[in-house]
Amino acid sequence: MPNRDHWSSSLGFVLAAAGSAIGLGNLWKFPYITYHNDGGAFVLVYLGCILVVGLPIMIAEIMIGRKAQTSPVGAMRSVVGRAWAPVGGLGVLSGFVLLGFYSLVAGWSLRSFVQCLGWSFGGFDPAVDLGADFGAMASNGGLQAFLGLLFMGLTTAVVAGGVKNGIERVARILLPVLFGILAVLLINSFRMSGSGEALRFIFEPDFGRLQGRGILEALGHAFFTLSLGMGAMITYGSYMSKRDSIVKAAGVVVLLDTLIALFATIIMFTVIFSQPGMREQIGKSTAGMLFITLPSLFYTGVPLGNVLAPLFYMLVAFAALTSTVSLLEVVVSYFIDEHGVSRLRASLLCGIAIYGLTILCGISLGSVDGISNFEIFEGKAGLFNTLDHLVANWLLPVGGLLTTLAAGWFIPKAVSRAELLDRDTRFFHYGAWSFFVRFVSPLAVGTILFFVIFKGADFS
Ligand code: PFF
User: Fold this and answer.
1) Predicted TM-score (pTM) of this structure
2) Of 14, 120, 426, 458, which sits with the fewest C-beta atoms within 10 Å of its C-beta?
3) Which amino acids bring their CB within 6 angstroms of ligand 1?
């Protein structure tokens, strides 16, 4: 397709794909699940999952996209076979649903940013009940709709700008800033008293404390954090030129994503562990740690907290934006490639439709009764929690399973060989990759689904 927009270089792809991977999963979910799974051993298992399941599937997705040079529906159809087009369709649906509530949490980071700015300039009052304050924010439907609007507006504007001039340009600016802020925070955290304890918690494995559930959670998170199982990497791969190496790019993206998750966790745990009694008090909800406990701690025990707190929430917002952009791009590229809609029109229409879902999720956190209380999955009341459960437990694992089966068993070996062995292959062993996508990944993802279906497990 000569007119297809492409990344300007291999680096352009790496930054955009790393931008997709690095997001709330790294800064919000990973630290939280590491905490609840008792650190060390869980982190090791997670790293194993990233390497033996995440990386091979990442390579497979990029390969399908680059080969097809079209969005996931058409890509699955042309590279794997007609019957596989619905798997691409499932990805588009997952992108739509995930973005519906992801943009809301992303909006909370803007709110925390503004809140911190207020504290930095106006002074922090330790007497405020931050849990109640967060609850009031969550159940304020109007505020939720406004925060969601800000984020969906930004996301839509970037995607409407195009692959090179929108998505890549924003990633080229935001990712280096994000790395810089993280470096400052990390260096600063090593000067704090809790850093030793934080490092021990994260890196000292105690396998006696690891539970089966933790292993599955690590696996599920490997998918989420690498943006796998819903066509995002197929879509970004479809804008990659044949000149660039798939394997090398996938390796760098996976490495960056993993490092950022670990650095963010070190920073957050150091801040928490540096203050007496906080380790035991971390909120029970996912939201708790990042949006309730942490903001105030910056003001009560972190050197230069006044400057670092707003910077930290700016980092969260930037990371979230490059991820929401990739989610919208999956949906938009479907309408462009399959239905011939112009990019501007597709971006606007999809952005508005998804924002409709964001509003519904925003009023399902307590402001409107019916939509906040209904329960389809046990213990998951309201639309927001229902969709979160649906994506993490069903859509991503099913999408991931079908993608890895497609890559391992249904794409002719000659095709995958030609795609993967065309460049610098010093660090790549085709046989090993093939073994992982054919046997290890399907077995691993199949196990997740088994537990979800038959044992009622929950990874959201
Ligand atoms: N990888 C993102 C994160 O860790 O926050 C979430 C995500 C983005 C998942 C894009 C899937 C996706 F297609």
Assistant:
1) 0.95
2) 426
3) 20-21, 23-26, 224-225, 227, 230, 232, 323, 326-327
